[in-house]
Structures are given as C-alpha cells and as structure tokens.
Amino acid sequence: MATTKQFLDYAGLQAYTTGIQAWANSASQIGYKTILKSADGNSLNLYKKPNAILGTDTPDATVDLGNADAAAQLEALASVIGATWDGTNKKYTIGLDANFEAQTAVAALNELKGQINILNGNDTTAGSVAKAIKDAIDALDVTEFAIAGKDANTNVITIHGISETDGKVAVGTTAANDIAFAPVAATGAAADVTNTAIAGVTKEVSGTPTATTNLQDTLEALKALIDALDTSNAVTVNEVSTDLAAGILKAYQISQGGSLKGTINIPKDFLVKSATIGVVATADNPVAGYAVGDKYIDFVINTADTASGSENAQHLYLNVKDLVDTYTAAQNAEEVQLAISNANEISATIVKVLGSKVIYKPAYTDPEMGAIPEETVADALNNITAIPSASITSLFS
Is the pLDDT score of 1 beyond 60? Predict the structure, then answer.
C-alpha cells in the first residue's frame, strides 16, 4: 500500500507560527501580558492584553500596595527604626546596642519588655527599682553614736550638730553649731553656778577681800557675815507706858544694838461693853418719841475722855418696835373678833357663828347604814323642821 507523506514547508510553518502567536496574545489566554503601576503608586494593574496602556485599558486585576509605593514605605520604615540597606546581601540591617542579645527589632522589643518587667518588679526582684531603693535605704544604717560629750577636765557638756552625707547621718564638725552647757549641768554643784558680785559680800583671796562670783563662795561669805554678828546687833522689844487719853492701849519699842528703831502702838478697842433691855416708864424717856410700855435695848459703848484720860460710858438706845413689823386687828368682825394689847398679847372673842359652820355630828361609818356624812347644826335644825308637827308631839307624849 502506498503511503503518502506530507511535509510542512516554510510557508506553512510561518502560517502556524502566526496562528500560535495570535492565540497566545489573545484575551482567552489566562496569563497576564502587561503589569503597570497605578498613577498614585498605591497598586499594581494586571492586564491580559499585551502592551496595555495605563489610563486607557481597563486592568483585569489589581494588587493593593498600601498607602504608598512599597519601596518608599520600606525606606520610610527603615529610616524610623534606623535600618540600613545592605546592597550586597540585598537586605536591611539594624545596628542594635552591643548590650542587646537580640539581632532583630522584634526581638529587641521583647528583650526591652522583659527588662521593663524586671524594673517594675517588687523589692525582692533583682534589678528592680524597688529593690534598688530598698538596698539603698538598708545601706544608710549607721552605728549608734553620741551627739553630746563631757570634758573630763572642765565638766563642760557640749551638744554637737548633726551632719548628713548621701543620706548617712553623723556628728557634725562645725563648731558654730555646738551648744555648750555650764559645768553645773554635769556636777550640780553650787560652786559651778555663777552670780553677780554683791557689794560687801567677799572672801579672802591671798589676804585680800574679793567679791564672790559663784554661789558656793557667796553662801559661805553670807554665813560668815551672820556668824560675825554679836550682841551689839541684837534686836530687843520693850513694852512702854501708854497714853490712854490718846486711845493707846499698849505700846512696844523696837531697838537694835541699843538704838531705837521704832514704836508700835496698839489702840484701845472701843466696842460694846454691855447691853440690857428696858421698858419705858415715862413718855419720851430715855429717847424722845418713846411711849410708856415700849421695850428698848440699852447698849453701853466704851469711849475715852481725851481731856481727862478716863473712860466714859456712852449709851445707845434701840426701840424693839423698830425691829419688828406692827400688826393691828380688824374691827367689827362678824364671827371672831381679834384684839392686840400694848403688851402685844393677842386675844379672840366669838361674836356670831353661822350654824352651817358648826359641826353637830362628825362623819362616821354605821355598821348597817355605811358611811354617814358629818352634820352641821344648820343641817340638824333643818331635819327637825322637816318632821311633821304630829310626829314631834308624839315624841314628847
């Protein structure tokens, strides 16, 4: 059987190539032929059409690049974090502090977070601020020290100031801040108490009288002056005669060393000598206005007759009526008439009394009738009047 062979000549190959190219460049082919960046640089436009024109042809798909061009954004980010572009190795590198163990920004941030957590730890966490403060406070402890001292030779007590360096307290060294106490603060001795010199109070120093300037020497000098007093300086008191006419009861003279210093006069006491009660027998005697029968008090007062020097008795009278209120009895009383005599005696006379005011029978309790009220004379008479006359006649028949 004869076989017919067909061969693709050059013309046919050209036609085949043209057809393949037309299909490959057609819209039905799934591959994207053109990729263009958008005018604002925020996205990539993908076209199936070869040689597509930006702004004229509609992209078949877009890829969002963010708020700016990706490269520009990476450059900006690198600038913020201090990254440097390594052109040889085609990557960014970050120059971290040598103390960082981390080699990337994220690792460095995590390392920093860990360090911050340590800083914020409690006072037992190594490396924390709280522990550093606690350790610093604990280191401020100092050994107890005295701020006052006494000089063994002078007995002067000195209180020093207080100094502070880096929180540690110590005894100050500035003399201007010292307070020195007199020796008496330590000894309590009178010899360490100074006093102003007193004229005439001296002690012998190398045979020369010298004014004393401390309490001990002053007290001893005063004692010596007291011991040196003799009888020529003694004080005496003598009673002397008095001048009765001048009203002097007693007189005493004060002398020292035989020299009269003064006289003390005690005046005579002129008070009530006696008091009696009398009754006026004659009108206006002993005092005008007194009536017969009036009682009075006779006070006798001691006085002195300055002319003769003798004592006289002066009388002072007081009417008893002046000491009490005067009472009188109302006249023309209807039932009881009162009377007051000159001797102040009170008497009463019954004039007329209503029968309703006179009790005839007092109230009582009858075993059978019970409580019986009181009955006046008027009630009794009314009861008798109420009895029929025939009944009254039967009572006496």
Answer: no
Lowest mean pLDDT among 112-121, 275-284, 354-363: 354-363
The encoded tokens of residue 380 equal 């009794």
In a domain, 104, yes or no: no
pLDDT at 284: 92
- Whether residue 209 is preceded by a cis peptide bond, meaning omega within 30 degrees of 0, is no
The verdict on pTM exceeding 0.70 is no
Assess if residue 136 is contained within a domain: no
CA distance 183 to 193: 8
How far is it, in rounded angstroms, from Cα 217 to Cα 224?
A: 11
Structure tokens at 312: 């006289």
- 3-state SS, residue 249: strand
Residue 240: pLDDT over 80? yes
Q: pLDDT-based confidence at 306, cuts 50/70/90?
A: very low
Is 50 exceeded by the pLDDT of residue 308? no
Distance separating alpha carbons of residues 221 and 195, to the nearest angstrom: 13
Q: Which domain holds residue 261?
A: 235-267
Our CA angle for 86, 91, 94, nearest 5°, is 75
Cα–Cα dist 354/87, whole Å: 152
- In sequence order, the β-bridge partners of residue 301 are 272, 314
Classify residue 45: in a domain, yes or no. yes
> Which of 31, 48, 64 marks a domain boundary?
64
- The Cα–Cα gap between 120 and 134 comes to 14
Asked if residue 298 lies in contact with residue 278, where contact means CB atoms within 8 angstroms, the answer is: yes
Q: Domain count of the chain?
A: 6
